[in-house]
Amino acid sequence: MKLKSKILIIAGSDSSGGAGIQADIKTVTTLGSYAMTAITAVTSQNTTGVISITSIPAKEISRQIEFTSKDIKPDVIKIGMLHSTKVIKSVLKSINKIKAKKIILDPVMVAKGGTKLINNQAIKIMKSKLIKRVTLITPNIPEAEILTGTKINTVKDMVYAANILLRLGAKNILLKGGHLDSKIIQDIFVNKKQISIFKNKKIKTKDTHGTGCTLSSAIATYYSCGKTLKKSCDMAIKYVNHAIVSGPKYGKGHGPINHLNTINIDKKFR
Ligand code: PXL
């Protein structure tokens, strides 16, 4: 199979393999593209929770981004876990230096088990500087609540929060509705010109570890292959849904999804 495109993933490592860099590489690879990485932190975890987080020095994160990109230019960058102000500043500097244009940001804040993956000071700079530098942000409801200072209980509240994010400088937003209590999940795609709602049946399972990482990496891959952002979101949501349905039921806690589900692999989307 010929490789379709090149993606640089800037994110944390999840030793359990379901989220973080591991989920990102599996997704990009499964969808037929070439994955490169800049690791921001190493987490020790299993499906029941995170026991420790070790930061990678900010300088080393910048080196991974800049030196790698200098040789193999990524078509799209996906950003995941950024735990400190120092790390965000370095990443901003590096993506500016390499003149990155297409960037998907998953504003990772809390792991499934409840462990915080970013500190409060870093959230501030994500809000004031990073959001406006990227092409698309993909917050879930708790993340959108923190970024906008609003409470989200309905789809109307989601639209309201997305508009605040637009005012903060976000160009495109995919606000994921999975945390609302309903049988249908409504994810909304918003920019200055349009609001689209993707509706999908909620799948009843506790095994959803890494869905956010997987979704943003799938979006990055489809987008790198020339799909529009909206279409990329639509296709990525379907990919994640199939990965959840075919989950391997591993572990005693929040288990991983099946990145290798073959639904879209053979389809020529480029
Ligand atoms: O799903 C968010 C996430 C992102 N990045 C890393 C993680 C997790 C969740 O556990 O471990 C490294």
Description:
- The chain has about 270 residues and is of the alpha/beta class.
- The protein has one domain (about 5-260): Ribokinase (UDP-N-acetylmuramoyl-L-alanine:D-glutamate ligase, 3-Layer(aba) Sandwich).
- About 35% of the residues lie in helices and about 20% in strands.
- It has 8 helices and 9 strands.
- The chain has helices spanning about 20-30, 60-70, 85-95, 120-130, 140-150, 155-165, 210-225, 230-245, and strands spanning about 5-15, 35-45, 50-55, 75-80, 105, 135, 175, 185-190, 195-200.
- Strands 3-2-1-4-5-6 form a 6-stranded mixed beta sheet. Strands 7-8-9 form a 3-stranded antiparallel beta sheet, sandwiched between helices.
- Helix 4 (about 120-130) links the parallel strand 5 and strand 6.
- The protein binds 3-hydroxy-5-(hydroxymethyl)-2-methylisonicotinaldehyde.
- 3-hydroxy-5-(hydroxymethyl)-2-methylisonicotinaldehyde (PXL) binds next to strand 1, strand 2 and helix 7.
- 3-hydroxy-5-(hydroxymethyl)-2-methylisonicotinaldehyde binds next to strand 1, strand 2 and helix 7.
